[in-house]
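Example (one chain per record):
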Amino acid sequence: MKIIIHGGFFSESSTNFETKVAKQQALLRIVKDSYTYLKSHTALETVVYAVSLLEDDELFNAGIGSQIQSDGKIRMSASIMDGSTMKMSGVINIEEVKNPVQVAQVLLDYEDKVLGGSGATNFARKHGFKQFSTEIPQRRSEYQAKLKATGTGTVGCVALDNDGKIAVATSTGGKGFEIPGRISDSATVAGNYANEFCGVSLTGVGEDIVSGAVAAKIVTRVTDGFTLEKAFEKTFNELKPFEGFAGAIAIDSKGNMYHQDSHPSMVFASFDGENSAVFN
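Predicted structure:
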């Protein structure tokens, strides 16, 4: 059993030491909690559990604490993928839901597996997800001051369970001040992808991640025989011509974990039952 999570890129690491430490501590707590959960649950159930915990922590830009778009509203996106069944589901630009990743989980049982905008929000209401504001005062003050967000906030989890099954989940509160309707990578196969060989979750600039088809490329290359390290190396090299900004975490079917980012400030944590690590 293995689990790895990320909390997006951390632009404040050089200026706010207290926030940096708080994020590291939160990631370590969540990854260990989620590993305990993994002991008695599937990889798919666990990635939803872990990402829900990340969505519930206002330190991260997903769920509570999501960024505000240019029209003053919060719209979030999330997806999950079951590597054993190759089924993916997600929500795009959903509003006023506490845990978008849980709505994505419900959609796995439907033929129409990815919903956007009001359709996603209406689906959530019909399935018992109550109206919930994820706005925190910090985001409102940033919006009112028209501060430029970094555009690199996302959370994600990849898990390998006792049966050797892999699953992945990714959730984002957006980049902040974007044009309403903008689509991030988090609910696409560029930002969230898994099969029986590998699972990958991305963070960074969504447009760059989509342009590089990053998650799907890494998983495909591992499937074709690349090691995780070589799959990451080749895929991230393909981001360089357009200066793509991205970070990724992964687990393969052999239990190998790997991470890489184009700018060394992604926050992530991993745990295998004995050894834990948290970095940014």
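Caption: Residues 17-38 form the longest helix (22 residues).
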